[in-house]
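Below is how a single chain appears once it has passed through the pipeline. First comes the sequence as given, then the structure the pipeline wrote out for it. We keep one example in the README because the format questions we get most often are answered faster by looking than by reading.
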Amino acid sequence: MPTLRKPAPAPPRPYVIDSNFFLQAHKLHYPIDVTPGFWAKVSSLATQGRLISIDKVRDELYTNPDALTNWMDSNLPGNFFKDTNTVLADYGRVCAWAVSMNTHYKESAINKFMEADEADAFLVSYALTHGLTLITHETSNPARQSAIKIPDACAPFGVSCLNTIQMFRAMGETF
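Resulting structure:
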């Protein structure tokens, strides 16, 4: 009788990272020169494909080249920042949701959320399209009318959001 082999488990789904993951780590919590273990862990997880981001985040981060962008150039794989042209259908859905919230959010908040060079709506769309968890330091504030926060845009679409520490705990990672 032939032995049935179980299929190999699927690799874990990557987490999609907001720009504030990098910015707050670099400027506030884990400076590159003080906490190399954090940055080595980020590099390793990115190289394994467990952390990714999008082209719009790259554009935000590279607005002002600095030690962080130098680190990214040397430590992130070339395919780390994904093309958002692949998520335009869901981007349309996310933008339609934002417009539908015009009785709650100020017009300026909706317009900023939907600006083509802003990453937030594209991050939500990328996570939605690919069934990923979004990593951000933004916190839900559904009563706020002057800005659409990422967790509040994720909620209607069932997209999960975590912060950095929650992500590391969910992954079982330490550094």
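The chain has a mean pLDDT of 95.

See the next section for the split statistics.
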